[in-house]
Structure formats: C-alpha cells, structure tokens
Amino acid sequence: MALVVALVIGLSCLLLLSVWRQRSGRGNLPPGPTPLPIIGNILQIDVKDISKSLTNLSKVYGPVFTLYLGWKPSVVLHGYDAVKEALVDLGEEFSGRGSFPVSEKVNRGLGILFSNGKRWKELRRFSLVTLRNFGMGKRSIEDRVQEEARCLVEELRKTNGSPCDPTFILGCAPCNVICSIIFQKRFDYKDQHFLNLMEKFNENLRLMSSPWIQVYNTFPALIDYLPGSHNKIIKNFAYVKSYVLEKVKEHQESLDVNNPRDFIDCFLIKMEQEKDNQQSEFTIENLLTTVTDVFGAGTETTSTTMRYGLLLLLKHTEITAKVQEEIDHMIGRHRSPCMQDRSRMPYTDAVLHEIQRYIDLVPTNLPHAVTCDVKFRNYFIPKGTTIITSLTSVLHDNKEFPNPDVFDPGHFLDDSGNFRKSDYFLPFSTGKRMCVGEGLARMELFLFLTTILQNFKLKPVVDPKDIDTTPIANAFGRVPPLYQLCFIPA
C-alpha cells in the first residue's frame, strides 16, 4: 500500500513539475499548440511523417512556432524566409547543435556533427582544412571520383544485365572516395569488412527514420533501458568505431610526422602538437567520433541519393532518355565525364538538382540550438533552445517550385532551357552548420550518375507506371523502397 501511495505522489509531483516548467518556460516564445503535461505535443505529431505535421501546424501558427517534444520546447522555423533569417543572417546565434538523444547516446558530445562551442569550432575548422588539403574541391579529388566511377561501372557490368538490388554497389563508390581521404585506402566491392560497414550505415539511416526513434528522442530517460531499435543503432555505431580504432592503431605504428598520408595522420600529428595542452580537443575519443561522423555522413547520404535517383529515372523514362541524349552529345562514349562537362549539360544538371529537391533527404535537418538568448521576430528564445528547421518547406515551396510534389527538372530550367539556380536549393542546409562535404557530394552525384547513364540503359523489372517511389521511412531521413533493376550495357 505504501508503495502505491509513493507512486501516486511521485507521479503527481512529476505532473505538477511538468505543468510548471511548461508555463514558466513559455515566456515570450512563439505561439504553438497547447502541450500536455510530460508528453508535450507528441500526440499532435505524426511520428511517421514529422515534416508533414510541421507543415500542417505552420498553417495554424505561422512560420515560427513552438512545439513541446516531451518536457522541453523546440522552436520550429518553416519556410525559406524564416530559415534564412536564422541560419544565415543570425548564423552565429543559431549555430548550436540541438538535442538529438539517440546520437548524444552514441557520440557523447564528441566529434563535429553533435558537438558544440569551442570543441565544434576547432574540430570543424580542422576537418575543413584537412579535407581541402587532401583534395576536397580540387582536381585531385575529381581524379579519384572518376577512377571510382570506372570501378563502379566494372562492378555493374558483372551483373550481366540481370536484375539486381543496387543498394550496396551504389554505397561502395562514395564510401571508397571517403576511405581514400580518411584511411588512404579503397576496398574491393566484395570485401566483407567493407560490406559490413555499408550494412551498418544503411541500417542506421533506416532505423533513425523509424517512428520508434522519434519516440525515443522525445522520451530518452524513460526508454533508455527498454529493448528497441535504439540499442541496435548504438551497437552499429560501436562496430564502426571499433573498425576506425583498428585503423588508428595501424596509423600510429607507421606514422611519419613529416609525411601525413591521410586525415587520420593529420589528426594524430595535431594530437602530438597539443599533447601538453590540457584543454586540447584533439584526443583519441574525438578522433574516433570525428572520423565516424565524416565516414558516415560522406557515405550514406550520397549513396541513398543515388539509389533514390536511379529509382526516379527508372520511373520517368522520358527524362532518362533526354539525359542520355545530352551525355551522348556532349561527352560521347569514349571518355569519362568530368566536372567541366556540367556547365555544358543544363538538362542533366537540372535533373540532379531535381532529384535532391524532390527526395528531400533530411526533411527537418539536424537540430540546431541558439547559443545565447535571442530576440527573433519579436519573440524571445532562451539560450540552448532546440531549433527545428523544415528543409521540406524550402525544397517544396510551391511558389519557387510550381507543383513541388511532381518530379520535374523544369524546376531548374528557364524558358530557354538554361540551368536556373535557386536560393531555395538547400538539401545540404545552410549557414555555419551546413554540410562540410557539400562540394564532394555534388561532384560524386554528377560523375557517378552520368558515368552510369553513359555506359548502361536502365531496365526496370516492372512497368514504369507501377514503380512506387514512396519512401519506406519518412522521419529523420527519407529512405527509398527496395527495388531491382537491370543495367544493360549501352
């Protein structure tokens, strides 16, 4: 009986504390739906499609509104103007990383994706400089991507035009480019360690987009010790980190400080330079997490975009035919595509932009946070408040992109058929937290996909009109359905 009384009193206290915190915390926050004690607004959100829920709420509360995901308020920015005003015009104030519990459990605030403050600034600056030194945005990295594109073509030829699932083949190509920068190594496409890494990254994107993880991110303290897919994500990241640790140990044994071979060598040299600095961010723990961040972000996002892109090209055969016609005309069959070709291929460039716009890979971006108390559009946002930016609302803006739910390369072409740039093209986000590898990703998408279309005709295994392009997961990321196709040599 005493236990029941204690439980009732405890729950009542929690309820009262929740109500008090929500009321006292609102201050002059933007308007939003009334939260329930403890659970906040979770019942007003479809955890299977959070982005759609945010769009519906914005119709009621405007482009800036407050949501309670559990106990804590998050401010949602919906539409290009609000997103740009925060992430670009007030870039420093909105440059924090917001709460994302499943990743915090894995990274513990280390690395570059989910760190903050001095640590984030130092590791991001180091990573950008080091990646550039190893060719990011230069001709040398283009040569690597072209060579990997040729390897990809050879691997696709081995399918002999038979139906195949392209998931892992397409994942291997961008992963090998990243591996060459981080580990100074590329893998054979049949290497089991390589395929295991691909499987972990692929599974984690799918799991992180599941409804269960959205619930976990809202109530981590309650769910932490329960079984569920959050444990699988943690286990998968542990596998990747253990692999990275093996490579770090190999690098330590053969390190030449006067001749750094790759990203890991540069980090180890920086660690040695700062060994007497007790406040240094260059530690083994930060090295493992930073490499895992770069490794994962540089692999899965590009490979998923390619996989989704091929599915769209399978369905829209008339668009594919026009791209291949432009490739034949501008490049031909006897040399590899190069980045100089892109400016002379407006239709192909428009198709690649439209793939990224249409699939809307990370609909609500990674969460931001304000680094100080901020006055934003006459509202007061306290330091540390999580900021959710709807990239969907920008990429699918119906004024900038008429019929945004239709796959149409015309969204990026003017009346004369020339490529049309758009400020609303933000698949890599914008501001101080925008994707470190945007230049590499855009290069890979152009070179890999044009090389595939130069060498193969894409043959679906079902009638194109029956191809379903609806994502199978639609929360953190949009994951395309599994499918098969035939790569018929051109």
Automatic annotation (TrEMBL):
Give one Pfam hit by family name: p450
| Compartments where located | Endoplasmic reticulum membrane; Microsome membrane
- Which parts of the sequence bind heme? C435
Membrane topology of this protein: Peripheral membrane protein
Q: Give the Enzyme Commission number.
A: 1.14.14.1
Q: Specify whether Amino-acid biosynthesis is a keyword of the entry.
A: no
GO CC terms, sorted: endoplasmic reticulum membrane
Q: Which cofactor does it need?
A: heme
Q: Which UniProt keywords apply?
A: Endoplasmic reticulum, Heme, Iron, Membrane, Metal-binding, Microsome, Monooxygenase, Oxidoreductase, Signal
- Return the broad EC class: oxidoreductase
GO biological process annotations for this chain's record? organic acid metabolic process; xenobiotic metabolic process
Q: Where does the signal sequence lie?
A: 1-21
Name by which UniProt lists this protein: unspecific monooxygenase
- Per the UniProt record, the source organism is Sciurus carolinensis (Eastern gray squirrel)
Taxonomic lineage of this organism?
Eukaryota, Metazoa, Chordata, Craniata, Vertebrata
